Amino acid sequence: MHNFEIIFVNDSFSRSGILKTRRGEVKTPTFMPDGTRGVVKSLTAEQVKSVGIDIVLANTYHLHLMPGEAVVKKLGGVHGFGKWQGPILTDSGGFQVFSLSKLRKITEEGVTFKHPVTGEMRQITPEKSIQIQLELGADMIVAFDHLTGLDEKSRDKTREAFDRTHRWLERCVTEFKRLTKDMKAADRPLLFGVVQGGLDLDLRKKSLALVQASGVDGIAIGGLSVGETQEEMFKVLEALAPHYDPNRPHFLLGVGTPSDLRFAFEHGIDMADCVLPTRNARHATVWGENDEIMHLTNAKYIEDTLPIQEGCDCYACANGYSRGFLRHQFKVGEPLAGSLASIHNLRYLQRIAESYRK
Amino acid sequence: MHNFEIIFVNDSFSRSGILKTRRGEVKTPTFMPDGTRGVVKSLTAEQVKSVGIDIVLANTYHLHLMPGEAVVKKLGGVHGFGKWQGPILTDSGGFQVFSLSKLRKITEEGVTFKHPVTGEMRQITPEKSIQIQLELGADMIVAFDHLTGLDEKSRDKTREAFDRTHRWLERCVTEFKRLTKDMKAADRPLLFGVVQGGLDLDLRKKSLALVQASGVDGIAIGGLSVGETQEEMFKVLEALAPHYDPNRPHFLLGVGTPSDLRFAFEHGIDMADCVLPTRNARHATVWGENDEIMHLTNAKYIEDTLPIQEGCDCYACANGYSRGFLRHQFKVGEPLAGSLASIHNLRYLQRIAESYRK
Questions:
Q1: Which pTM value belongs to this model?
Q2: Interface pTM (ipTM) of the complex?
């Protein structure tokens, strides 16, 4: 368990470190862009690198369905596939199975759902999730969990999902050990367990203790940013902050906004991922000075010669692509506008992460 | 008329040179990508540069309609707008007015047509075209011509368009001189006149003589690649080849395929532009070895680990983005696939151009 080196802990829970993976080091805290289908949408690996990013996330659910992990493996694994040569983390597919798939049926064995294109029934079990992620060739993988909180908030349901998540975690750990037992320590991917428990702070703390006792390499916090208020999310992060094992990396799944990230980094979180910066960017929504949410299609930007944010060092701002130019290109549907805005939004979040490093 | 320096003329009509513009030199022969709305679709200026391109084309018709030349000027002109810092050539808008606009009415004064978005009536005259192009800030501009050959091929119509093209050329030259009379020679954009005459070789030769007599800086060949066979186009290029003023650059408008370009470069053409490489690329169609037309969405590429073309030095091929990867990303609508394929197709044509240089 020496994959994480803490460089600095300040007087709050905020800390700065280096996470060591088989494909290089990750400076933390960090923001990880979502490369849903194996690439960060509309960006080359070189452009992602230019943002100052060390690690990207890929989605197990999407890659499993299309083109399938066997095809990705033949094309060189997630690294050979999308040409991102740094560390890649895959999620478990759990979130997508619960949020995107139709006709899903949850049993103790796993989740059965309908393939959105072919219509055939598929099942992802904890073992299957681990198998897919190792087949994809990720450097960090996540245990398959039972997500709650999307539509049901009853205590019974939360408790049921909580218990299942931990039974599934055991199965994930067992399967992971089985499949990686012949690997040298330096070649082994890192496994993250997922903390659930909805908004119930006691369940959350119990879940954290169970995950930490399971022997995983890293701690992931799931089930947040799924419809609750920011205040509710912050209460969970606050409650967990004093209880993390400091020697392992703490990963907040699916978060978030600039203010979410600041709060998270100030409460012991080392890494976070979210589709928000790139999805917003493709819809012409970017962050400006002081987290201002700018809609670049607004008519007020027609003749605006300023970059998105003065002083920003991203490729778009540093090269002076103007708001007026971007407005026009968004209006005419030019994909370059989304790429440039994505670069800016990712850099915006990465600068927040960098501000907490030593 | 010392803007063009010929380095080499071989025993056919093929030649290699350097075209000097106020914004730098252009090595010829060259292929110019179309930056219809001020940028080469889905590519940053840096990515275009990586292809080995010296000069890009922007479309007067599109930029005039949206966002308008006054807005482009306020945003820094075409160079400040799209951040391409090398030479930019604008076309006259003539081709688009004839091919894209609805309700167009042609009089001796100019062409009246309906704005495709606002529905208001607009008029482009020869003078207006020159004014727009200078306002946009292009380094090379093209005289407004009357295009024939899109739907009518009668000799009378061709003759009428031919005569009007030359009357309009005179008006363009007059307006150009009026608007640039206070510019130093080194700051003045270059003006190209357009040779028309359909498939009538006599008219074509007369048109070339008239354009060359008008005192323009460069010779553009218009009205080709508009529906005629390749054989018909080649006959025109062959007929014109012995008659070009060798001291001026020869620009073939809207062409073309790899074989079109080879034939053109072997018959005295120095520069050509076309939307084909980038438009095809966005639809997953790329050139492979020996001009093979590859449709990357084809199922045979699912597990193909090869780059588009082995040995190609474009960003996509040199970095090993596989056909299988590209197929998948095209299938799921990922814009990066179109960007990478665009880079390859542009590089494919630029390598043809480079093969004729000394």
A1: 0.95
A2: 0.94
